[in-house]
Amino acid sequence: MCFSSTASFTAAVALVPLGLLAVRQAQRSGQQGRLPLALTPWLFALQQASEGVVWLGLDDPGGNGTTAPLTRAAALLFLFFACALWPAWMPWLALRFGNTLLAPWRRRLIRLLALLGLAFGLGLWLPLPLDSDRLQIVVVGGSIHYATTFLGSGVINHTLGSGLYALLVGLPLLLVPSGRLRLFGLLMLLAFTLAQLAYLHAFTSVWCYFAAVLSALTVWVVSEPPRPPLRSLLRPPPRTAGPPPP
C-alpha cells in the first residue's frame, strides 16, 4: 500500500486465492461475460506486488533508491495499472458483464467510455517510460507519491483530470442492471473520493490500494443469480388459445 512493502505484499497474496474463487464462481454461473470481473483481483494483486517492490527499493539503504532500474520498472508497472489499464478495463468488464442485459443506448455509451478510457489511459502512461524526467518517486508523510508530468499537465488541471478518471472507472459499473455490480461501483467511487480528500499527497497509491481491497467483493458479485436477457423481457408474452367456439 502507501505505507509499507508488507501491506502491499499482504494484499497481493490475499487477492490470489480470492481471484481463483471468483473465476470458479464465474465459470459455475455459466456467464462467461463475468470472467473479466473475476480476473480483476489477480490484476490488482500484480499491481500491489509491483508497489511492494518499489517500497523495497526505497527502503534499501545500500541501493540507489528511486534511480535503481528495478525500482523504476516496478513503479512504471504500478502506474501502468493505475493510469492506463483501469480507465479502459472497467468499461470493458462492464460491457462484458452486462452482455445481453444492456439496452442499446447503454451499450453504446459504455463502448464510448471504453474507447475514451483507452485513449485517456495511454495518454497518461506512455510518456512516462519514454522520458525518465516525467516520473519522480518520493516518500511524503510515510506514503509513496508518484510525481508525474503527464501530457497536457499544463492544460488539464487535477480536478478535471481526476473527475474524468472517476467517470471512466465508476460510471460503466453503474450502467449495468446488476445490483451487486452497481454497489461495487459505488464503493469504488467512495474509495476514490476518500483517497482524494484524505490522502491527496499519495492519491494514486492509496486509491489503488483501496480499490484492490474492494476487488475482494468480486467473488460476491460474480455469484449473483443471472437475470433474463433484455430481449426476453421486451418480447410480448405468447398468445394463449381462446375458448373453443360453442
Could you explain the architecture of this structure?
By secondary structure, the protein is mainly alpha-helical. It has a single domain (5-225), classed as Rhopdopsin 7-helix transmembrane proteins, CATH 1.20.1070. It has helices at residues 5-29, 35-59, 69-98, 104-125, 127-130, 158-175, 179-198, 203-214, 218-222, 230-234, and strands at 135-140, 143-148. It has a two-stranded antiparallel ribbon with strand order 1-2. A hairpin with a 2-residue loop joins strand 1 (135-140) and strand 2 (143-148). Helix 1 packs antiparallel against helix 2 (35-59), helix 4 (104-125) packs antiparallel against helix 6 (158-175) and helix 6 (158-175) packs antiparallel against helix 7 (179-198). The longest helix is centred in the middle third of the chain and has 30 residues, at 69-98. The mean pLDDT is 87.
What is the level 1 CATH name? Mainly Alpha
Average the pLDDT over all residues and give the rounded result: 87
**H/E series:** HHHHHEEHHHHH
Per the CATH scheme, the topology name is Rhopdopsin 7-helix transmembrane proteins
**Helix coverage percent:** 55-70%
Write down the domain tally.
1
Going by CATH, the architecture would be: Up-down Bundle
Q: Note the beta-strand portion.
A: under 5%
Strand order of the largest sheet: 1-2
What structural class should be given to the helix and strand makeup? mainly alpha
- Computed CA radius of gyration, to the nearest angstrom: 21 Å
C-alpha geometry: globular
Our measurement of the CA-to-CA distance between the termini, rounded to an integer number of angstroms, reads 79 Å
Counted by DSSP, the helix tally is: 10
